[in-house]
Amino acid sequence: MEELTKAIVELENEKVTKMVKDELVKGTAVEEIVEKCRQGMEIVGQKFSKGEYFLPELIMAGEIFNSIIEIIRPVLAEAKTNTVGKIVLATVQNDIHDIGKNVFKGFAEANGFDVHDLGVDVDPETIVNTIKNEKPDIVGLSCLLTSAFDSIENTIAKIKEAGVRDQVKIIIGGAPVSEELKDWSGADAATRSAAEGVQLCKELLKK
Amino acid sequence: MAENKNLKLYEERLNRIVKAMQLEEPDRVPLIPPEEGYWVAAYAGYSVADVTYDYSLLAAAWEKAFTDFPEWDAAYAPFCVWSGPMFEFAGITQFALAGKDGAAQKMHQWKQVSCMSEDEYDELIADPYKFLLEKILPRRCKELGKPYPRNAMAFGKAFQEFLSWLGYWGAKGAEWKEKFGMPVLAGGFTEAPIDFLMDHLRGFKEFSLDLRKLPKETIIRACEALLPYMIKWATTGTRPALFPPIFIPLHFAPFISPDCFKEFYWPTFKKLVDSLVELGYGVIIYCESNWTPHLAYLKELPKGKVIAEFETIDMKEAKKLIGDTVCLMGNLPYELLVYGTKEKIEDYTKKLIDEAAPGGGFIMSADKIFGENVNPKCMRYWCEAVVKYGQY
Q1: What ipTM does the predicted assembly reach?
Q2: Does the beta carbon of A49 lie under 8 angstroms from any beta carbon of chain B?
Q3: Which of B249, B251, B248 is CA-nearest to residue B204?
């Protein structure tokens, strides 16, 4: 494993920051740096799925990845980074919780997705309009509260009404979501895990 | 005569629950839906904002539910919608209040706010009371952070409201016993020291990072410093008894590794439960999310004094592993009560009873606190299924 990838997997924040700066000074292509980081984040995700890592480790990895992006942002804009797909992401109306959504966002970005994050308590109209403007491949709807089930149903109904349901795949995520809610609301995928959610998004792109 | 009938009903329900707590077989499996007021309010046609500002509406809503669902054996935690005026007098910034703060129309919501910084641990450990009173309260409640005398006036108003709120629900509990024969389950409230530290002081994300960044000793000493206050929180204004038990919702455990749990979570949490039991209290712990990795620890808790309420868990395994120590509760999937058919609800109810009820020590409940979208029809199917399959 590359040293940088390894340092990310081991969540060595300061080491990672220094290594990324060194790589930039050495003139390493930014795409290459991002790829090494991406691999590290992927392994962190796998460790989470296997039960070796837990949510604090995911949050730490997300923080590390954000600090890497901050360092390379000036050069990133010029580099050609390949995005695998675009996600419009939101915590649905009447729910203000975003820990899970933000962890998902970090991992989705680390896995090459372009994520357009609308924040929390987002009304269906805003989501529909963003679909029309941003033309994402995937819409990610997050919630923590059971009382937000209605908002998930309602948002997907509005997406259908607007005639854009066929243009996107919809994944719902959060601690209370289930296959029942997926079927009832008409989503394409459901997950209670941020790491699994990113894998599901990759699969949705193939469908 | 009617009162006698209700008192008899109360005794019947109380016996059912207490026997289950003591790991014995009652006449039938007790049924206590995890309802804190949000659903009964909606069921009676009120918004959460309505009942947060007018307790009499919430009480009326509960009473409608008691009448329509007499199969319930207790009101779980009837006052957890809290008092809107109290929060407003104090200027609390921790909740988004339903009907007040835009987003939260259907439930009060917890905002993740960090109101203690990473370098304040020493101050907390040195004198928790002083730190909480002088530093945290004014940060948490903006009216209490204003210059004297405005802070004192705000405190006076909020405390006065708190007392009348407490008095109102205390009187209601007595009234419900006589008029409906309905016990109230939650007798008091507290938190595990580490959850208090995470929930109220540091915030989820910040505390997650602390666990990796700070010396282990710092976290452990902070939990130990908070422990006496967590005990006091439970015992203040409550009477030591097996029933009603002290309610302890558990928050951080499912998110951390078994090593982390063992080192940081379990020691002061166990001390909390042991201390309350020694003082004569029963305890109900609500093991939110998935407790599978930490399940075996619960075997170390005092026998026949604790209800362990579960969200996502294999109840068959739990029965095998800890069924001789704690009374199991919970696990029926919430979505069944929103979208389920009669058949699906009956099947799951029967499965749960078959797995967890034999020998006693089981209370039927659902996996998540009720929101407004539980379907009353599903509630009816559930009640009937418990009566049908839950007889011993």
Answers
A1: 0.82
A2: no
A3: B251
